[in-house]
Amino acid sequence: MRVLVVEDERVMADAIATGLRRQALAVDVAYDGAGALERTGVNEYDVIVLDRDLPRVHGDDVCKQLVAQRYPARILMLTAAGELDDKVEGLSIGADDYLPKPFAFAELVARVRALGRRAAAPLPPVLERSGVRLDPGRREVTRDGRPVDLTRKEFAVLEVLLSADGAVVSSEQLLEKAWDEHIDPFTNVVRVTMMTLRKKLGDPPVIETVPGVGYRL
After folding, report:
1. From first to last of its 217 residues, what are the pLDDT tens digits of the chain?
2. Among positive and negative, which fits the CA dihedral 209, 214, 215, 216?
3. Which residues does residue 18 pair with via DSSP β-bridges, in sequence order?
4. Which runs of E-coded beta strand occur in 136-217?
5. Closest residue by Cα to residue 178 from 203, 197, 165
6. C-beta separation of 138 from 109 below 8 A
7. Spatial separation of the C-alpha atoms in residues 186 and 149, rounded to whole Å
8. What are the residue ranges spanned by the domains of the chain?
9. Cα distance between residue 215 and residue 194, in whole Å
10. Phi, psi angles (nearest 5°) of residue 177
11. Residue 12 in 3-state DSSP?
C-alpha cells in the first residue's frame, strides 16, 4: 500500500511517516497543499492522510480537487477541529474518513489499512493464497501454518502479490506500491527482494516469474 502524508507540522508529518513505514507501508510526505497536488499528479496513492489546515493550498481545496479529478485514493482527513459540524463538513467535501487530533497512532494505522482495502476492489482483512497467509494488522505471515519472518519490504511485496489475486504484477507496479518516491527506478531492488522472499517462503516455490512481464503468486 502506498500512502501520502500531508501535514504542515514537520515533526508530526515525519513521525507519522516513520510509524507507517514500520507497518511495511510505502510513504511519501508533503508539507503543504501545493506539494500534495504535485505528488498526486505524478504518483498513484492508495490512501492520503490529509491535514485540513494547510498552507499554500487549504486541505479542503486539495480534497475538492482530488475528488473533482476522480483521483482513486481514499482520503483520511486529520484536523484539530473535532466538532461534529467540522466532521460533517469534511466528509461532505469528499473525505472518506475523519480523525481529530490528538489521536492514537494505532487507530490511525487501523483506519489507513481499512481505507486501503477499499481503494480498489474490496480486499479481505487477511490475505491467503497457495498456503501463504498474510495478516496485515498483526504483521504476520505463515506458509502452510509455518511462521515466516519477513523484512518490511519483503512483507510489502508479498502483500502486493497476494492482493493481485493471481494476476501478474510488474516490477514497476511493485516499485510504485512497496517503495516511496526516492527509489531509483533503475535499481535491481525488486529482483533482490524477490529472491530473498522466495527463499524464506520455501519449497515448493509459489512465486512465478513471467518473463518480460513480472511476477505472480
Report:
1. 899 999 999 999 999 999 999 988 999 999 999 999 999 998 889 999 999 889 999 999 999 999 888 898 999 998 876 566 666 776 778 889 989 888 999 999 999 999 987 755 555 678 999 999 999 878 899 999 999 999 999 999 999 999 888 999 998 889 888 887 777 766 788 999 999 999 999 999 999 999 888 999 9
2. negative
3. none
4. 140-143, 146-147, 208-210, 214-216
5. 197
6. no
7. 28
8. 2-117, 127-216
9. 9
10. -95, -30
11. helix
Domain 2-117 carries which CATH code?
3.40.50.2300
Tell me phi and psi for residue 175, to 5 degrees. Answer: -60, -40
Grid coordinates given for 188: 535491481
Residue at grid coordinates 510489502: 156
DSSP 83-105: SHHHHHHHHHTT-SEEEESS--H
Contact assessment for residue 26 and residue 49, using Cβ atoms and an 8 Å cutoff: no
Q: What is the CATH number of domain 127-216?
A: 1.10.10.10
CA–CA dist 42, 37 (Å, integer): 9
* Chain length of the chain: 217
Q: What percentage of the chain's residues is helix, strand, coil (to nearest 5)?
A: 40, 20, 40
